[in-house]
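Why do we bother with holo predictions? Because pocket geometry can differ from the apo form. Keep that in mind while you read this record for S-adenosylmethionine.
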Amino acid sequence: MNIYNNENGDLTDRDFLLFKKYIYDKVGIDIEDHKKGLLRNRLKKRLKALGIGSYGEYYEFLRRSRDDELGYFISAVTTNVTSFFREPRQWEFLKANLKEYMASKKDGRLNIWSAGCASGEEPYTIAIFLRELLGNGYDYGKISILATDISEKALGKAKAGKYGANAITGLSAGQLNAYFIKETEGGETLYSVRESVRKSVEFKIFNLVYGNFAYVSPVKDFDIIFCRNVMIYFDSAVKKALVERFISRLAKGGYLLVGHSESLIEFGGGLDSRQYGVYSKK
Ligand SMILES: C[S@@+](CC[C@H](N)C(=O)[O-])C[C@H]1O[C@@H](n2cnc3c(N)ncnc32)[C@H](O)[C@@H]1O
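The structure, written out:
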């Protein structure tokens, strides 16, 4: 096979390597070789929308257009799978430990970062969870939830805060009633996050690998950072650097949550492991 043959519009091995390097350099994601088919399928739609006939041409277009095309490209290559109350054992952990942590704080403020928030289910879950944990009398003005992602498309959905029947399966009927408004749009039933929940969350586009941490938030010491199911796409060097930056932005005793299947043991000099996927800053 001539890997440089691009005539049939397929993603050649050469083009795949070019995209792979480009993604690593711009997003920090390490696309494994067996994901070539996945990348081809994800970019196909974009080529069609632009009327571009080959992946090689699209690569040149992407490089020439600089940041104009980058947003679409990133949205096409990132995986934004998420759900409400994902990883139930972590919510159990917070239910059992968070009040005690909060009692140790003098100002009663709680600063939380959902880093890699995808379409918003995670930060809205945080807001709902806190309302259920702290009850009606709490001053929710003291709680800030920063939610960031690199994908403009995912962030657009997160800001809209409207979810269809497939997305709301992790929520009880009581939670849907209390925190969502049921609407019908184009014949589809959607659940729109109520303003009382929405106002606790600030959404921002941010690249966790190449973005400047100094500008992501004025908060110097977060109480909880969620970065769940994001670092699985990064290699060891990128992960290590990111974990160090997270540690530098956590309050002492504050929590760093990663996905259940992720381990930070190899990078965690500054962290204590509390349970699967839950670490606290030493
Ligand atoms: C699988 S989703 C996880 C969503 C949520 N944290 C959860 O666990 O349900 C991973 C998210 O990480 C985002 N992501 C990937 N690389 C990123 C980067 N370099 N900077 C910021 N976000 C990134 C993707 O856009 C995607 O929305």
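The longest strand covers residues 250-257.
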